[in-house]
Amino acid sequence: MNKLLIATNNKGKVEELQDLLKDIGIELITPSQIDLELDVIEDGNTYEENASKKALAFTRASRLVSLADDSGLEVDALDGAPGSYSARYSPKPDANDRDRRVYLLENLQDKPRPWAARFHATIAIAIPEELWSQAARRLKSQEQVPALQIFEGFCEGEIIPEERGTGGFGYDPIFLLSDLGKTMAELSVEEKNRLSHRAQAVINAKGILKILFSK
């Protein structure tokens, strides 16, 4: 079954992952396409815990290879916060992306600039038992293909106090890639999908995906 389930209900992430994975010759499936309604609570303390929890839940529900990611913003002046709590980083119970950006900047106001930061992405690929066994035989070693594979990616930059750009989502409008002089939200799709933390994690994951879906 040459299908990979993108294990997220986040429209922005779906679009980004679809573009990043379009060249690997695998049919990409979203939860809505298979009428899968699954909301996994991201209550882990690390990116790996959250990504793994999502990938495994979607694989168990669909019996498809599932790819999930968890990512966060790590700001040096805040001792690495918000980190794995980036999507929950606001005192407001129903905070949106802008609320979280405003709260982050409030917490940085008394910190000296530049506010060095990085985006950190972790991708988890969960593999159904039957496909896991097939891939293990190809590699002649089951130990090389555990049912869960983890990959990471990073993007270095700094936080700026004013929002710039209309692309992306999350903290993109206040995350400056210093060498380019652009925020993540000012990048073209092509630039972002070459430079972002999620792009780097996907690049690292493509090798195992090609093995999993090889004939």
Which keywords apply here?
215 residues, alpha/beta, Maf protein, seven-stranded mixed sheet, 7 strands, 22% strand, globular
Strand content: 15-25%
Assembly state here? single chain
Question: In which range does the helix fraction lie?
Answer: 25-40%
Name the CATH architecture.
Answer: Alpha-Beta Complex
SS-derived structural category:
alpha/beta
Number of helices: 6
Radius of gyration: 18 Å
Mean pLDDT: 90
Strand neighbour order, sheet with most strands:
2-1-3-4-5-6-7
Pick out the low-confidence regions. none
Write down the CATH class. Alpha Beta
Description of the structure:
The chain has 215 residues and is α/β, with parallel strands linked by helices. The chain has a single domain, classed as Maf protein, CATH 3.90.950.10. Helix content is 33%, strand content 22%. The chain is built from six helices and seven strands. The longest helix is centred in the first third of the chain and has 16 residues, at 47-62. 35% of the residues are buried. The model has no long low-confidence stretch (mean pLDDT 90).
Topology (SSEs and partners):
Elements: E1 3-6, H1 11-20, E2 27-29, H2 47-62, E3 65-75, H3 97-108, E4 115-126, H4 129-139, E5 148-159, E6 175-177, E7 182-183, H5 189-195, H6 197-212
Parallel strand pairs: 1-2, 1-3
Antiparallel strand pairs: 3-4, 4-5, 5-6, 6-7
Helix pairs in contact: 5-6
